[in-house]
Design a protein that fits this description.
The chain has nine helices and nine strands. It has about 260 residues and is α/β, with parallel strands linked by helices. Strands 1, 2, 3, 4, 5, 6, 7, 8 and 9 form a nine-stranded mixed β-sheet that branches. The relative contact order is 0.16. The model is unreliable at about 135-140 and about 245-259 (pLDDT under 50).
């Protein structure tokens, strides 16, 4: 029987350096419950760069035998890990997934289905917002990076994506890779999205592919991230002089209130 979708899933461990490792278990649980199941993916690649204890890795492999661990050199950064996964994968569609996010049960189907509608669709981006449980979580949801869910239901053309909730045709991504040699922390995807749009690529927005991103793991992580957001904002303005708050990593509190 021919699979409904031909895809690979790529996740990495680099962004767990300052996160709650228990969040990884919750995240994988949300992946395991997807339809289609991750077991029908060509592969689910976990790009491991030394951020997870060996004991936890063994636990993950035992609990989720469909995960394929791919070791990357120590110090391999976020975007390098993502592109390494694309090069190692064999699926026609590369689905990017982050280990500090919780994915709605129909997320995978919602982000894959548009690719079956037209060969012209090269990029599909879902919506990510920050988890808002409790006083701290609510404050982060209102003032952190991710905008709130739009409430839309239809696929629409857009100009941006979050790398924790996006899918590419693999051949297209390898021809138009995410730049990895920029002086940025998490802003490379904004530069990449800008370049794709300049080339005439439509980044299709799928508002029904929804993800909850974990809030910063404590106040020290919160302040550290905001320092880095400021750093990224400066360099993005240098690299894209006419950029606005529409880019994902520039959509701080003002960006949310404007949506």
């Amino acid at each position: 029987m021919t699979p409904e979708f031909n895809f690979s899933i790529v996740l990495e461990t680099e962004n767990l350096a300052n996160a709650d490792l228990n969040g990884l278990l919750r995240s994988l649980s949300s992946l395991a419950s997807q339809d289609p199941s991750p077991t029908v993916a060509n592969e689910v690649l976990l790009i491991e760069s030394g951020d997870i204890p060996e004991s936890l890795l063994s636990q993950l492999v035992a609990q989720y035998p469909w995960i394929k661990i791919c070791s990357a050199p120590a110090g391999t950064e976020y975007y390098d890990s993502k592109m390494l996964g694309a090069k190692l994968a064999t699926g026609d569609i590369i689905v990017y997934y982050d280990s500090d996010c919780i994915y709605e049960s129909d997320w995978l189907r919602k982000i894959l289905t548009p690719f079956t509608q037209s060969e012209e669709i090269q990029v599909v981006a879902g919506e990510t917002t920050t988890s808002g449980v409790g006083i701290y979580g609510t404050a982060m949801a209102l003032g952190y990076i991710s905008p709130q869910y739009s409430g839309k239901t239809e696929l629409t053309p857009g100009k941006s994506y979050f790398l924790n909730n996006v899918a590419f045709r693999r051949s297209f991504l390898l021809d138009h890779p995410i730049p990895t040699d920029l002086p940025l922390y998490r802003g490379n995807c904004a530069i990449h999205a800008h370049e794709l749009v300049q080339f005439g690529t439509v980044i299709w927005q799928q508002p029904q592919a929804r993800v909850l991103h974990a809030p910063p793991n404590g106040l020290s992580h919160f302040f550290w991230r905001f320092l880095l957001i400021g750093h990224d904002y400066y360099w993005q303005k240098q690299l894209i002089p006419n950029s606005t708050n529409a880019e994902p990593t520039m959509s701080g509190k003002k960006g949310k209130l404007d949506i």
